[in-house]
Amino acid sequence: MAARVESSIGGGEIDEEGDERGSMWDLDQSLDQPMDEEAGRLRNMYREKKFSAFLLLQLSFQSLGVVYGDLGTSPLYVFYNTFPRGIKDPEDIIGALSLIIYSLTLIPLLKYVFVVCKANDNGQGGTFALYSLLCRHAKVSTIPNQHRTDEELTTYSRTTFHERSFAAKTKRWLENGTSRKNALLILVLVGTCMVIGDGILTPAISVLSAAGGLRVNLPHINNDRVGWLFAPIVFLWFLFIASIGMFNIWKHDPSVLKAFSPVYIFRYFKRGGQDRWTSLGGIMLSITGIEALFADLSHFPVSAVQFAFTVIVFPCLLLAYSGQAAYLRKYPHHVEDAFYQSIPKRVYWPMFIIATAAAIVASQATISATFSLIKQALAHGCFPRVKVVHTSRKFLGQIYVPDINWILMILCIAVTAGFKNQNQIGNAYGTAVVIVMLVTTLLMMLIMILVWRCHWVLVLLFTLLSLVVECTYFSAVLFKVNQGGWVPLVIAAAFLVIMYVWHYGTLKRYEFEMHSKVSMAWILGLGPSLGLVRVPGIGLVYTELASGVPHIFSHFITNLPATHSVVIFVCVKNLPVYTVPQEERFLVKRIGPKNFHMFRCVARYGYRDLHKKDDDFEKRLFESLFLFLRLESMMEGCSDSEDYSVCGSQQRQSRDGVNGNGNEIRNVSTFDTFDSIESVIAPTTTKRTSHTVTGSSQMSGGGDEVEFINGCRDAGVVHIMGNTVVRARREARFYKRIAIDYVYAFLRKICRENSAIFNVPQESLLNVGQIFYV
Known about the structure:
Organism: Arabidopsis thaliana (Mouse-ear cress)
Largest sheet: 6 strands, mixed
Pfam families: K_trans (PF02705), K_trans_C (PF22776)
Domain K+ potassium transporter integral membrane: 223-523
GO cellular component, one term: plasma membrane
Domain K+ potassium transporter C-terminal: 536-771
Structural class: alpha/beta
């Protein structure tokens, strides 16, 4: 007699939960293939590095509008912010241009495009992507919920170290200090908060600078009357600024090309004066947008981003700045509107339209980068639960966070209305960008040691060169803190308090569950009925624990005289990986003897995965449970042989068992690491497959239990969630009482409930309240 075990886990869902790069790879709408298949094909080509030169050109062209919008619009405001008091010496223009040239060469080109971009986490960029890489290569996560089965995921790549290597010593140094883990987390949060501040300041400075061109031909117009023009063609923008730059160099002063010699930087500072040093704050604006470049990296392969910058962006920016410098050498009094004044009259209005459109694109790029970082922070437990809208059924990377969008809009309007002029916004903008660069340098130092395993001399060389340049810029922006530079510091401080307090509360809740979990001896002592009436139905008990029986369950059965016939402890766990393949999402194991009908299911998600309404979380959970039961029935007669270990599961003695009763423990041993239900059957399958298993005696037990659970499922499924209230102890210090009793309590009140995230029907929801003190 043959029984068929069908598995649909992960079938046909690649693009729903797949790689975010697909969001930009709808290249040819005329192809006969569906868009999902085309995106998957391009993604696989990228992973295998087999895409053609023509496809690389297409991807590079598309990256201009997404990745380089912010960096490309910098010529709108750099020279004005460099010389806000006017140009006193024409030679200063050459010195400033030389600084711009070498700033673009050292920071965006050499550091970011060719070094930092290679530190992506499977195509994902941003500070939290770097943090995720570090968490996989060293135990630096502040929430200790890691398990050895997590390391067996196909997306969980890591390297091993020689015990005496410098990388191993650095790893032990980080892991052995709680304060070092907290310092690393705070560093990541600071960089993230500064990028959020960048998302607020970029629309203000970019759009106002672009719209400021109206004042050249219409000097009486007010900024409030400026409309938004939508035609974001960034390629035309680069083409225009390069062409106008070449025209101005030829017409006004070809000698500005001598700025490519670094000797003019030395002469610029040799002439002395604090104004020349503080002008670095304006020159640094020429490299703004690199933080959005890295955060938006997930949309395209690194080679496309590198090609676009090297061939298009970099030379066009050099020509644009050189052309403005040539014009200012002849008309230094036009520095306030240098960009628009240098445009030939015949192409003025077309250029104004393109500039406005490019500024809007630049604003959208930083806002999208903010959404991505917030999503990553959510997965790491560092931001209150907010609604994340998946705006495309085909591409996972297209997300929208309504609450954050409203916050950015309100703060952007406040910044625009509150500052008196564009120069003050530029000062604030520069402060945010330079701090992000410093954070990235420090994180890259650890990436080079732990992930790339570079020689310490190379790490030291990269770190020192980066810090020398960036600390120089940082010292310049410090002079402008009182001239607008305080704004991103205040914004970042507010977001930092929110994120760290939320993470602290999340950590304490996890520690409370760990310390108050119920021993297995107590559960076994209650017997199969758990000392209660077992009513028909299934209870899904949600917990943050991946092992042990949570305190919420003991609290529940202590106060109620009945529980469900089947109890499943559900742990939804976020891992420091960009995605968890659907076929590897669920871990299932049994708790106690079979007649207890208790199970644990761990659902694992990456920081890029979304909980969508069409996921049908409950259905997939039961599919995994039924498959586990059938496989468990098949393996009941197996010993710990080599064939058994090939199946990918390890049968071991339960850690929660009763000591001194070895026979009973062996009979109730659990499948603690069913690391991939799909991989046990067919590791390489991605489509719906069927598998035939012979042996009626082996399948009968599993089939009976499946029928029993199906009957209980028909009787009703209840989702039991803990409503844990965190309070500070009376003897706690005042700042802890403020953080817990007011800030964290307020954030818990306004954030989304877990039931909304998992789309739990309200009629099937049961909240169990409990209070604990920290």
